[in-house]
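Weekly structure sync, notes
Attendees: PL (lead), two postdocs, one rotation student
Agenda item 3: pending single-chain targets
PL asked that the sequence for the first pending target be pasted directly into the notes so everyone works from the same version. It is reproduced below exactly as submitted, 326 residues in total.
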Amino acid sequence: MTRTLGARGPAVTSLGLGLAALGRPGYITLGHGADFGEDRSVSAMERRAHAVLDAAYGAGVRYFDAARSYGRAEAFLASWLAARGLRPGDVTVGSKWGYTYTADWRVDAERHEVKDHGLPTLRRQLAESRALLGPHLALYQIHSATFESGVLDDTAVLAELVRLREEGVAVGLSLSGASQGEVLRRALEVRVDGAPVFSCVQATWNLLERSAGPALAEAHAAGWGVIVKEAVANGRLTSRDTGPETGPLRELAAETGVTPDALALAAVLARPWVSVVLSGASTVEQLRENLAARSVAWSAELEARLEGLAEEASVYWGKRSSLPWN
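Predicted structure, written out during the meeting:
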């Protein structure tokens, strides 16, 4: 079943597919290195991405999320859209600007991406995204907006985003770090000529990191679309994490008859302010496990038994920053 991304946004489905782990050979998800085998050539990665995209589309997923920094994610998505003969509106495509991929297809690169929220980067990356995705591009987001980058006060960037919005592309921002809620509340106030610039936010919320929840509820109440990423905490809320911290999730998942990742995704789907929850699956098998979240009947008992998993935001983001690329 589809819904709109916010009060007046494009059509989406409750579960979407993010391509962060599919568009490049390395990522920070636990166990990601075992997902692709020895062949991580561009052609092999494209075939695997297409297989997951096919499985998602076949299961009713209609929102797909990429970024300029996700290696060749936009190119893989574009070639899949063309191969399947999908037209603009058949699916909703979102992408992001602000990071440049620098790993040169290496997992052991010293730096995988470089952040720059300046106007030249926006113009360059928007042209690159449009060259690949064309009229399929329905949502364009600032990638990991922060106070430090100054992007929310850059009048030239904001004016360019307004022009993009006037061309019919929804404009949003993604968030990261312990200050997600504060940055979002600042973004809710951003106006150009009295009109809001943004209509969508993508943020991390999961059973471990819940700090942005109140601000996300405010964005929803303001008519924004709310996309949740990292719902399984880069693998920490899956069966790959065997530590004691997430033991209650694994125990409850076994009782419920689903995998831990499905239960973690179901927890996000149960938030009344969520428009889309992203699966970050690297394989068809992972995607199928994630999709089972749609059949979980969330309850007050499940909520209460998993409430204790929550960590302080600073603790969560400290752990995330230590996860290795693999």
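Discussion points:
- The mean pLDDT is 97.
- The first helix runs from residue 42 to 58.
Action: rotation student to compare against the earlier draft before next sync.
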